[in-house]
Amino acid sequence: MTDTTARTPIPRIISVDDHIVEPPHLWQEWLPQRFKERGPRVERRRLGDMKWVGGAKMYEYELDVPDAPWCDVWFYEDLVHPNKRHVAAVGFDRDEMTMSPITYDEMRPGCYEPKARVADMAANHVDVSLSFPTLPRFCGQTFYEASDRELGLACVKAYNDFMVEEWCGDSGGALVPLIIIPLWDADLAAAEVRRNAERGCHAVCFSEIAPNLGLPSIHTDYWDPFFAACQDTGTVVCMHIGSSSKMPAASPDAPPAVAASLSFNNAIASLSDFLFSGVLVRFPELVLAYSEGQIGWIPYILERVDDVWKEHRAWAGVADIIPEPPSTYYYRQVYGCFFRDNHGLRSLDEVGVDNITFETDYPHTDTTWPNTKQVAEDMMGHLPPDVVWKIVRGNAARMLHIDIEAPPAP
Questions:
Q1: CA proximity to 394, closest of 159, 128, 151
Q2: pLDDT 10s digits, 183-202
Q3: N or C: the chain end with fewer CB closer than 10 Å?
Protein backbone atom coordinates (compact mmCIF):
# COMPACT_ATOMS: atom_id res chain seq x y z
CA MET A 1 0.00 0.00 0.00
CA THR A 2 1.31 3.47 -0.88
CA ASP A 3 1.99 5.79 2.06
CA THR A 4 -0.05 8.93 1.42
CA THR A 5 0.82 10.64 4.71
CA ALA A 6 1.73 14.27 4.10
CA ARG A 7 5.37 15.09 4.85
CA THR A 8 6.57 18.40 6.25
CA PRO A 9 8.61 20.32 3.66
CA ILE A 10 12.22 20.96 4.69
CA PRO A 11 13.09 24.68 4.65
CA ARG A 12 16.48 25.74 3.36
CA ILE A 13 19.06 24.52 5.84
CA ILE A 14 21.59 26.37 7.98
CA SER A 15 24.44 23.89 8.45
CA VAL A 16 26.43 24.57 11.63
CA ASP A 17 29.18 22.04 10.97
CA ASP A 18 30.99 21.84 7.66
CA HIS A 19 34.71 21.97 6.91
CA ILE A 20 37.16 23.86 4.76
CA VAL A 21 40.26 22.30 3.22
CA GLU A 22 42.46 25.38 3.30
CA PRO A 23 43.63 26.52 -0.16
CA PRO A 24 47.40 26.38 -0.75
CA HIS A 25 47.74 30.16 -0.93
CA LEU A 26 46.15 30.94 2.45
CA TRP A 27 49.14 31.71 4.67
CA GLN A 28 51.40 32.72 1.81
CA GLU A 29 48.98 35.51 0.93
CA TRP A 30 47.52 36.47 4.31
CA LEU A 31 50.60 36.40 6.54
CA PRO A 32 52.69 39.58 6.93
CA GLN A 33 55.68 39.50 4.59
CA ARG A 34 58.24 38.76 7.31
CA PHE A 35 56.46 35.52 8.27
CA LYS A 36 55.64 34.10 4.85
CA GLU A 37 58.81 32.07 4.37
CA ARG A 38 58.21 30.25 7.68
CA GLY A 39 54.43 30.01 7.39
CA PRO A 40 52.47 26.93 6.31
CA ARG A 41 53.12 25.95 2.68
CA VAL A 42 52.07 23.16 0.32
CA GLU A 43 54.39 20.86 -1.63
CA ARG A 44 53.38 18.09 -4.02
CA ARG A 45 55.18 14.92 -2.92
CA ARG A 46 54.80 11.18 -3.39
CA LEU A 47 53.23 9.59 -0.31
CA GLY A 48 53.29 5.97 0.81
CA ASP A 49 50.34 4.16 2.34
CA MET A 50 48.81 5.85 5.37
CA LYS A 51 48.16 3.87 8.54
CA TRP A 52 45.70 4.97 11.22
CA VAL A 53 47.35 5.20 14.66
CA GLY A 54 44.90 7.53 16.44
CA GLY A 55 45.67 10.18 19.03
CA ALA A 56 47.17 13.53 18.11
CA LYS A 57 49.42 11.90 15.50
CA MET A 58 46.47 10.17 13.78
CA TYR A 59 48.40 8.68 10.82
CA GLU A 60 51.74 7.15 9.93
CA TYR A 61 53.14 7.40 6.39
CA GLU A 62 56.37 7.80 4.45
CA LEU A 63 57.22 10.68 2.13
CA ASP A 64 58.91 10.48 -1.27
CA VAL A 65 58.20 6.80 -1.88
CA PRO A 66 59.09 6.00 -5.51
CA ASP A 67 56.04 5.48 -7.74
CA ALA A 68 53.66 6.20 -4.82
CA PRO A 69 50.64 8.45 -5.46
CA TRP A 70 51.10 12.19 -5.52
CA CYS A 71 49.82 14.13 -2.55
CA ASP A 72 49.58 17.83 -1.74
CA VAL A 73 51.27 18.04 1.66
CA TRP A 74 51.31 20.91 4.17
CA PHE A 75 54.58 21.76 5.94
CA TYR A 76 54.84 23.99 9.02
CA GLU A 77 57.81 23.87 11.40
CA ASP A 78 58.13 20.12 12.12
CA LEU A 79 54.56 19.35 11.04
CA VAL A 80 53.97 17.28 7.90
CA HIS A 81 50.25 17.16 7.09
CA PRO A 82 49.12 15.25 3.97
CA ASN A 83 45.74 15.98 2.42
CA LYS A 84 43.58 12.86 2.58
CA ARG A 85 40.72 11.68 0.41
CA HIS A 86 38.36 10.81 3.27
CA VAL A 87 38.66 14.43 4.49
CA ALA A 88 37.83 15.76 1.01
CA ALA A 89 35.38 12.99 0.20
CA VAL A 90 32.59 14.75 -1.72
CA GLY A 91 32.32 13.59 -5.31
CA PHE A 92 33.69 10.11 -4.60
CA ASP A 93 31.62 6.94 -4.29
CA ARG A 94 31.23 5.66 -0.75
CA ASP A 95 33.76 2.84 -1.24
CA GLU A 96 36.27 5.29 -2.73
CA MET A 97 36.32 7.52 0.39
CA THR A 98 39.54 5.92 1.54
CA MET A 99 42.46 6.95 3.73
CA SER A 100 44.60 7.74 0.71
CA PRO A 101 46.61 10.75 -0.53
CA ILE A 102 44.90 13.42 -2.58
CA THR A 103 45.92 16.55 -4.48
CA TYR A 104 43.90 19.71 -4.89
CA ASP A 105 43.43 18.79 -8.55
CA GLU A 106 41.56 15.67 -7.46
CA MET A 107 39.32 17.41 -4.91
CA ARG A 108 35.95 18.86 -5.68
CA PRO A 109 36.60 22.65 -5.80
CA GLY A 110 33.95 23.28 -3.14
CA CYS A 111 36.38 21.84 -0.60
CA TYR A 112 38.64 24.88 -0.83
CA GLU A 113 37.09 27.53 -3.10
CA PRO A 114 34.25 29.70 -1.70
CA LYS A 115 32.24 30.30 -4.86
CA ALA A 116 32.29 26.58 -5.63
CA ARG A 117 31.25 25.85 -2.05
CA VAL A 118 28.25 28.18 -2.29
CA ALA A 119 27.24 26.46 -5.56
CA ASP A 120 27.45 23.05 -3.88
CA MET A 121 25.38 24.37 -0.98
CA ALA A 122 22.68 25.66 -3.32
CA ALA A 123 22.53 22.25 -5.01
CA ASN A 124 22.12 20.65 -1.58
CA HIS A 125 19.26 22.82 -0.25
CA VAL A 126 21.65 24.62 2.13
CA ASP A 127 21.28 28.34 2.70
CA VAL A 128 24.11 29.08 5.17
CA SER A 129 27.22 27.16 6.25
CA LEU A 130 29.70 27.38 9.14
CA SER A 131 33.03 25.63 8.42
CA PHE A 132 35.69 24.27 10.77
CA PRO A 133 39.39 24.31 9.86
CA THR A 134 41.52 21.37 8.71
CA LEU A 135 45.24 22.19 8.87
CA PRO A 136 44.85 24.22 12.11
CA ARG A 137 42.73 21.29 13.36
CA PHE A 138 39.39 21.77 15.06
CA CYS A 139 40.38 24.41 17.60
CA GLY A 140 43.65 25.77 16.21
CA GLN A 141 45.87 23.41 18.21
CA THR A 142 48.35 23.15 15.33
CA PHE A 143 49.63 26.65 16.12
CA TYR A 144 49.53 26.04 19.88
CA GLU A 145 51.74 22.96 19.47
CA ALA A 146 54.33 24.82 17.37
CA SER A 147 57.41 26.34 18.99
CA ASP A 148 57.36 29.90 17.60
CA ARG A 149 54.58 31.75 19.43
CA GLU A 150 55.03 34.99 17.47
CA LEU A 151 54.67 33.09 14.20
CA GLY A 152 51.79 31.07 15.63
CA LEU A 153 49.85 34.20 16.55
CA ALA A 154 50.47 35.62 13.08
CA CYS A 155 49.18 32.37 11.56
CA VAL A 156 46.03 32.47 13.74
CA LYS A 157 45.32 36.05 12.70
CA ALA A 158 46.04 35.30 9.04
CA TYR A 159 43.60 32.38 9.12
CA ASN A 160 40.92 34.55 10.70
CA ASP A 161 41.50 37.37 8.20
CA PHE A 162 41.17 34.87 5.36
CA MET A 163 38.06 33.35 6.94
CA VAL A 164 36.27 36.69 7.38
CA GLU A 165 37.42 38.53 4.27
CA GLU A 166 38.06 35.89 1.58
CA TRP A 167 36.15 32.73 2.49
CA CYS A 168 33.02 34.55 3.69
CA GLY A 169 33.48 38.06 2.32
CA ASP A 170 31.82 37.76 -1.10
CA SER A 171 29.36 34.98 -0.26
CA GLY A 172 26.37 37.23 0.43
CA GLY A 173 26.02 35.72 3.89
CA ALA A 174 25.98 32.12 2.66
CA LEU A 175 29.29 31.44 4.40
CA VAL A 176 29.52 32.44 8.07
CA PRO A 177 32.95 32.95 9.66
CA LEU A 178 34.30 30.68 12.39
CA ILE A 179 37.62 31.79 13.89
CA ILE A 180 40.42 30.16 15.87
CA ILE A 181 42.30 31.57 18.86
CA PRO A 182 45.84 31.51 20.29
CA LEU A 183 45.18 28.81 22.87
CA TRP A 184 48.38 29.53 24.78
CA ASP A 185 47.16 32.91 26.09
CA ALA A 186 43.59 33.50 27.26
CA ASP A 187 43.99 37.29 27.10
CA LEU A 188 45.22 37.13 23.51
CA ALA A 189 42.33 34.75 22.77
CA ALA A 190 39.87 37.26 24.21
CA ALA A 191 41.39 40.04 22.14
CA GLU A 192 41.05 37.95 18.98
CA VAL A 193 37.39 37.24 19.75
CA ARG A 194 36.72 40.96 20.20
CA ARG A 195 38.71 41.92 17.08
CA ASN A 196 36.65 39.63 14.90
CA ALA A 197 33.32 40.37 16.57
CA GLU A 198 33.79 43.98 15.51
CA ARG A 199 33.64 42.79 11.90
CA GLY A 200 30.63 40.53 12.36
CA CYS A 201 32.08 37.19 13.44
CA HIS A 202 30.15 35.50 16.25
CA ALA A 203 31.56 31.95 16.34
CA VAL A 204 34.88 30.65 17.68
CA CYS A 205 36.52 27.23 17.92
CA PHE A 206 37.47 25.82 21.31
CA SER A 207 38.68 22.49 22.69
CA GLU A 208 36.09 20.10 24.09
CA ILE A 209 38.62 18.92 26.74
CA ALA A 210 41.44 21.45 27.01
CA PRO A 211 43.60 19.44 29.47
CA ASN A 212 44.06 16.78 26.80
CA LEU A 213 46.07 19.42 24.95
CA GLY A 214 48.11 20.26 28.05
CA LEU A 215 46.03 23.39 28.72
CA PRO A 216 44.34 24.48 31.97
CA SER A 217 40.88 23.09 32.62
CA ILE A 218 37.65 25.06 32.72
CA HIS A 219 37.55 24.41 36.49
CA THR A 220 40.24 27.07 36.89
CA ASP A 221 39.74 30.76 36.12
CA TYR A 222 42.34 30.65 33.33
CA TRP A 223 39.76 30.89 30.54
CA ASP A 224 37.59 33.58 32.16
CA PRO A 225 38.91 36.44 29.95
CA PHE A 226 38.07 34.35 26.88
CA PHE A 227 34.61 33.37 28.16
CA ALA A 228 33.92 36.98 29.13
CA ALA A 229 34.83 38.16 25.62
CA CYS A 230 32.55 35.54 24.08
CA GLN A 231 29.67 36.49 26.37
CA ASP A 232 30.16 40.22 25.79
CA THR A 233 30.22 39.87 22.00
CA GLY A 234 27.57 37.16 21.60
CA THR A 235 30.18 34.75 20.22
CA VAL A 236 29.22 31.08 20.43
CA VAL A 237 31.94 28.68 21.62
CA CYS A 238 31.99 25.78 19.12
CA MET A 239 33.54 22.49 20.27
CA HIS A 240 33.95 19.89 17.54
CA ILE A 241 34.50 16.21 18.26
CA GLY A 242 38.25 15.62 18.14
CA SER A 243 39.10 19.16 19.26
CA SER A 244 41.03 17.68 22.16
CA SER A 245 43.28 15.69 19.77
CA LYS A 246 42.22 12.50 21.51
CA MET A 247 39.47 10.37 20.05
CA PRO A 248 38.02 7.70 22.35
CA ALA A 249 38.71 4.06 21.59
CA ALA A 250 38.29 0.82 23.51
CA SER A 251 41.63 -0.74 22.56
CA PRO A 252 44.88 0.70 21.18
CA ASP A 253 44.75 -1.68 18.22
CA ALA A 254 41.07 -1.07 17.42
CA PRO A 255 40.23 -0.14 13.82
CA PRO A 256 39.26 3.49 13.08
CA ALA A 257 35.60 2.40 13.01
CA VAL A 258 35.65 2.12 16.82
CA ALA A 259 36.82 5.72 17.27
CA ALA A 260 34.28 6.90 14.70
CA SER A 261 31.47 5.11 16.56
CA LEU A 262 32.55 6.48 19.94
CA SER A 263 33.35 10.03 18.85
CA PHE A 264 30.41 11.50 20.80
CA ASN A 265 32.02 10.33 24.07
CA ASN A 266 34.17 13.45 24.25
CA ALA A 267 31.07 15.62 23.95
CA ILE A 268 29.48 13.76 26.88
CA ALA A 269 32.58 14.33 29.00
CA SER A 270 32.85 17.98 27.96
CA LEU A 271 29.21 18.81 28.65
CA SER A 272 29.43 17.16 32.09
CA ASP A 273 32.57 19.19 32.76
CA PHE A 274 30.91 22.47 31.83
CA LEU A 275 27.69 21.75 33.73
CA PHE A 276 29.60 21.16 36.97
CA SER A 277 32.33 23.78 36.44
CA GLY A 278 30.35 26.87 37.36
CA VAL A 279 31.33 28.53 34.06
CA LEU A 280 27.71 28.72 32.92
CA VAL A 281 26.71 30.13 36.30
CA ARG A 282 29.37 32.86 36.22
CA PHE A 283 28.69 33.61 32.55
CA PRO A 284 24.91 33.25 32.21
CA GLU A 285 24.83 34.50 28.62
CA LEU A 286 27.74 32.39 27.36
CA VAL A 287 26.62 29.98 24.61
CA LEU A 288 28.20 26.59 23.86
CA ALA A 289 27.73 24.42 20.76
CA TYR A 290 28.71 20.75 20.48
CA SER A 291 29.52 20.16 16.83
CA GLU A 292 29.17 16.74 15.16
CA GLY A 293 28.47 15.13 18.53
CA GLN A 294 24.93 13.97 17.67
CA ILE A 295 22.10 14.31 20.21
CA GLY A 296 20.83 10.87 21.24
CA TRP A 297 23.07 10.76 24.32
CA ILE A 298 21.84 14.06 25.75
CA PRO A 299 18.68 12.90 27.61
CA TYR A 300 20.52 10.39 29.76
CA ILE A 301 23.48 12.62 30.68
CA LEU A 302 21.07 15.38 31.71
CA GLU A 303 19.17 12.90 33.85
CA ARG A 304 22.41 11.66 35.38
CA VAL A 305 23.97 15.06 36.18
CA ASP A 306 20.73 16.22 37.78
CA ASP A 307 20.60 13.05 39.86
CA VAL A 308 24.23 13.48 40.95
CA TRP A 309 23.55 17.10 41.86
CA LYS A 310 20.50 16.08 43.90
CA GLU A 311 21.85 13.00 45.64
CA HIS A 312 25.60 13.53 45.89
CA ARG A 313 26.31 17.25 45.99
CA ALA A 314 27.25 17.23 49.69
CA TRP A 315 30.43 15.31 48.94
CA ALA A 316 30.78 15.79 45.18
CA GLY A 317 32.31 19.27 45.33
CA VAL A 318 29.52 21.23 43.65
CA ALA A 319 27.16 22.26 46.46
CA ASP A 320 28.54 25.81 46.55
CA ILE A 321 29.13 26.10 42.80
CA ILE A 322 25.94 24.95 41.07
CA PRO A 323 22.81 26.51 42.62
CA GLU A 324 20.28 24.87 40.28
CA PRO A 325 20.00 21.43 38.65
CA PRO A 326 22.72 21.25 35.96
CA SER A 327 20.22 20.64 33.18
CA THR A 328 18.98 24.19 33.81
CA TYR A 329 22.15 25.56 32.26
CA TYR A 330 22.04 23.16 29.31
CA TYR A 331 18.56 24.25 28.30
CA ARG A 332 19.54 27.89 28.76
CA GLN A 333 22.96 27.99 27.11
CA VAL A 334 23.87 24.88 25.08
CA TYR A 335 23.19 23.62 21.55
CA GLY A 336 23.63 20.09 20.24
CA CYS A 337 24.17 19.23 16.59
CA PHE A 338 23.44 16.20 14.41
CA PHE A 339 23.31 14.95 10.85
CA ARG A 340 21.78 11.48 11.39
CA ASP A 341 20.21 10.67 14.73
CA ASN A 342 16.75 9.13 14.65
CA HIS A 343 17.05 8.07 18.28
CA GLY A 344 17.73 11.65 19.35
CA LEU A 345 14.77 12.91 17.36
CA ARG A 346 12.51 10.45 19.16
CA SER A 347 13.60 12.14 22.40
CA LEU A 348 12.95 15.76 21.44
CA ASP A 349 11.19 16.60 24.70
CA GLU A 350 14.31 15.71 26.69
CA VAL A 351 16.89 16.96 24.18
CA GLY A 352 15.05 20.27 23.88
CA VAL A 353 13.52 21.38 20.62
CA ASP A 354 15.18 24.79 21.08
CA ASN A 355 18.62 23.24 21.68
CA ILE A 356 19.14 21.35 18.41
CA THR A 357 20.95 22.34 15.22
CA PHE A 358 21.61 20.49 11.97
CA GLU A 359 24.66 19.95 9.77
CA THR A 360 25.79 18.45 6.47
CA ASP A 361 29.48 17.77 7.39
CA TYR A 362 30.64 18.74 3.88
CA PRO A 363 33.15 17.48 2.62
CA HIS A 364 33.87 14.63 5.10
CA THR A 365 32.80 11.01 4.73
CA ASP A 366 29.84 11.54 7.08
CA THR A 367 28.44 14.19 4.76
CA THR A 368 24.87 13.95 3.55
CA TRP A 369 25.75 16.01 0.44
CA PRO A 370 24.19 16.11 -2.14
CA ASN A 371 21.14 14.41 -0.60
CA THR A 372 20.74 16.40 2.62
CA LYS A 373 17.19 17.52 1.88
CA GLN A 374 16.04 13.91 1.41
CA VAL A 375 17.94 12.75 4.49
CA ALA A 376 16.30 15.51 6.54
CA GLU A 377 12.84 14.69 5.19
CA ASP A 378 13.28 10.99 5.96
CA MET A 379 14.22 11.81 9.55
CA MET A 380 11.98 14.79 10.26
CA GLY A 381 9.17 14.85 7.70
CA HIS A 382 6.72 13.54 10.31
CA LEU A 383 7.37 16.47 12.66
CA PRO A 384 5.32 19.70 12.71
CA PRO A 385 6.58 22.48 10.40
CA ASP A 386 7.49 24.83 13.25
CA VAL A 387 9.60 22.12 14.89
CA VAL A 388 11.40 21.25 11.65
CA TRP A 389 12.05 24.94 11.02
CA LYS A 390 13.68 25.30 14.44
CA ILE A 391 15.87 22.24 13.99
CA VAL A 392 17.21 22.89 10.49
CA ARG A 393 17.13 26.67 10.45
CA GLY A 394 15.74 28.76 13.31
CA ASN A 395 17.91 27.60 16.20
CA ALA A 396 21.09 27.99 14.16
CA ALA A 397 20.08 31.48 13.09
CA ARG A 398 19.54 32.47 16.72
CA MET A 399 22.84 30.92 17.75
CA LEU A 400 24.81 32.68 15.00
CA HIS A 401 22.92 36.00 15.03
CA ILE A 402 21.62 35.57 11.46
CA ASP A 403 18.56 37.54 10.40
CA ILE A 404 16.02 35.25 8.71
CA GLU A 405 12.29 35.06 8.14
CA ALA A 406 9.76 34.62 10.93
CA PRO A 407 9.00 30.99 11.94
CA PRO A 408 5.87 29.24 10.72
CA ALA A 409 2.92 29.21 13.10
CA PRO A 410 2.71 26.14 15.36
A1: 128
A2: 999 999 999 999 999 999 99
A3: N
